Amino acid sequence: MKIAVLAGDGIGKEVTAEALKVLQAVVPKTVVLEVSHAPIGGAGVEAAGDPLPAATLELARRSDAILFGAAGEPGDEKLPFDMRPGASLLRLRKALGLFANFRPAFLFPELADASSLKREIVDGLDLMILRELTGDLYFGEPRGVTPEDGERVGINTMRYSESEVRRIGHAAFRAARLRNRKVCSVDKANVLEAMQLWREVMTDVGKEYPDVELTHMFVDAAAMLLMRNPRQFDVIVTGNVFGDILSDAAAMLTGSIGMLPSGSLGSGTLGLYEPVHGTAPDIAGKDIANPLAAILSVEMMMRLSFDLPEAADRIRRAVSSVLAEGYRTADIYQPGTRKVGTREMGEAVLAAL
Amino acid sequence: MKIAVLAGDGIGKEVTAEALKVLQAVVPKTVVLEVSHAPIGGAGVEAAGDPLPAATLELARRSDAILFGAAGEPGDEKLPFDMRPGASLLRLRKALGLFANFRPAFLFPELADASSLKREIVDGLDLMILRELTGDLYFGEPRGVTPEDGERVGINTMRYSESEVRRIGHAAFRAARLRNRKVCSVDKANVLEAMQLWREVMTDVGKEYPDVELTHMFVDAAAMLLMRNPRQFDVIVTGNVFGDILSDAAAMLTGSIGMLPSGSLGSGTLGLYEPVHGTAPDIAGKDIANPLAAILSVEMMMRLSFDLPEAADRIRRAVSSVLAEGYRTADIYQPGTRKVGTREMGEAVLAAL
Ligand SMILES: CC(C)[C@H](C(=O)O)[C@@H](O)C(=O)O
Ligand SMILES: CC(C)[C@H](C(=O)O)[C@@H](O)C(=O)O
């Protein structure tokens, strides 16, 4: 089991360190675990003058799974795209062909009160957003800022081919079969031709999964219903841009983005696993950050890349039990619970394992 | 005062009828009110074979303000763009150059419990989303589905020119001056060049309004913060697509989309006013729909197109008082209140006026 650890910037280093300990603790004794570290983001610029150093990409390619922390530095969007720490993640996703981004949003019952939604709306919430990750406005050409009629015009291209929609569609229906057999495809087919094609291909793919219910929803309605009645959803599949927005909104339903993992896969089993949160520069280096999202990313890794559901279940149970025991990092702290730092939370999970 | 009433389809007709009565009741005696009706959407197809008949567009152009209901028919996105009832609204916005879509999200204290968010999160909520309405992916060229390497590829173009961003920017800062002097510009400048230009121009426009605070936020973060802490916002200005999504999410914060009006303006005072909700075919013709969004659209019309703040205030007070008296349509009904139909709600507002 070859794992590349790309901890990156900000709190990425701290949370990844805890997640790695958990990984080492759950991997079956019979497995030879090979862990390598490489710099990415601001750390990549420092080490090799490139946010995604060639050696880092090469290491990632040769791995079975990647544990990613966070990358980016405040204001780095002012740099050219290839030099931006925050863009290193996009380049890595694209280079490895990781087109399927699984972003679960679930609620630990212990944290139901942390949500800004009423308890009766979010209790028992457990949905999966599947976001297409290598297409859409993120990568479409032409793009850029060009002069036109004496002023500048900014352009990006939303672009989806049939085969791109088809493969993320299959991933969605397969995921739904392991859950509640419902797929909601989110688009804007009433306005955008690219999304009409999306809807058409999804409908077509759906015919191969007669046991899974397929519905379609416009993105504006989906944003509303996520707030109104999120438990009606099982798997939501959508494009890169809509998925970026909806998955963050869905994450917020659970009250703490510090709790949520994600996993990105391509056509094989190589996957990149990362917490949904970013670098959080304001709290970096202070042993304050919540490592549970990174730890739960290891759970996803066990499930999706290594087909080790028992190891995954052990992690989930350990996290549940530390929450039940009252351990809380600052972001999920509530009076009456026990406030701990990053390392202490990691130790608590290890102890529970 | 020349008003074009384009009631359209579904519940559009019912709610517009009530709003029109309110309009007639609040217009000052000294004003000559000229009301004309014209078909749009499915009604346009029926009357003239075109969802936006030439005569309807002509009437709209010659008016001082348009009271719009709702347009669209289930599944109409399968028709060619120009023949789609739902697209008639887009064509009308574009033809009249209505680039600034004002979508307030505010909470009547009487309805705080209707929100799916906790009361302490939404109490006193009052924000304005200003959505650019004639640019972006909605109208950008090239667009369409074309064959490429043996398969079909769907394409749309996100496109913003400096002058397009500048004019919506000015509208945002002017609106903020009448409110709490805070503008949050929402973009995706970390990924999209079109949005980098957006951010740059907004920053530039902001320099002309030193008394207004300008912040920038990525759209994914904005979607989260709208749920987490919506009262931190005053005016949010954003592009057409992000605005479509965020304004519906913001609408949902208030608990009933049946309560929310919107207004769209161009460079003059001609405005189009419409409820945020759609045609709701499932409840159309049943005297069930909530007319308050349409009625509050007349309030916006009085304020934005006619500079009649007193007439506007009267409408707002009348709506508050019928809510305080316990009148509720089905969508906002709660035990202990008095359930009424569309017409009865309209009559109650008239009585309160
Ligand atoms: C950091 C940013 C480029 C990235 C994205 O938009 O994909 C992030 O928001 C995410 O969702 O992983
Ligand atoms: C009906 C649809 C085309 C429209 C839009 O996307 O603009 C609607 O969602 C709106 O927000 O007014």
From TrEMBL, chains A, B:
Stretches assigned to the Isopropylmalate dehydrogenase-like domain: 2-349
Residues annotated for Mg(2+) binding in this entry: D220, D244, D248
Residue(s) at site: Important for catalysis: Y138, K188
A Pfam family reported for this protein in Swiss-Prot or TrEMBL: Iso_dh
Record bears the keyword Repeat: no
Enzyme Commission numbers on file: 1.1.1.85
Keywords: Amino-acid biosynthesis, Branched-chain amino acid biosynthesis, Cytoplasm, Leucine biosynthesis, Magnesium, Manganese, Metal-binding, NAD, Oxidoreductase
One Gene Ontology term from the biological process aspect of the record: L-leucine biosynthetic process
Signal sequence region: none
Catalytic activity: (2R,3S)-3-isopropylmalate + NAD(+) = 4-methyl-2-oxopentanoate + CO2 + NADH
Record's cofactor remark: Binds 1 Mg(2+) or Mn(2+) ion per subunit.
Molecular function in Gene Ontology: 3-isopropylmalate dehydrogenase activity; magnesium ion binding; NAD binding
Cofactor entry: Mn(2+); Mg(2+)
Record keyword Transmembrane present: no
Residues reported to bind substrate: R93, R103, R131, D220
Subcellular location: Cytoplasm
SMART domains reported in the protein's UniProt record: Iso_dh
Pathway(s) served: Amino-acid biosynthesis; L-leucine biosynthesis; L-leucine from 3-methyl-2-oxobutanoate: step 3/4
A cellular-component GO term for this protein: cytosol
Cross-referenced PANTHER family: 3-ISOPROPYLMALATE DEHYDROGENASE (PTHR42979)
Similarity remark: Belongs to the isocitrate and isopropylmalate dehydrogenases family. LeuB type 1 subfamily.
Entry function: Catalyzes the oxidation of 3-carboxy-2-hydroxy-4-methylpentanoate (3-isopropylmalate) to 3-carboxy-4-methyl-2-oxopentanoate. The product decarboxylates to 4-methyl-2 oxopentanoate.
Subunit structure: Homodimer.
Protein name: 3-isopropylmalate dehydrogenase
Species the sequence originates in: Trinickia soli
Lineage, broadest ranks: Bacteria, Pseudomonadati, Pseudomonadota, Betaproteobacteria, Burkholderiales
Gene label: leuB
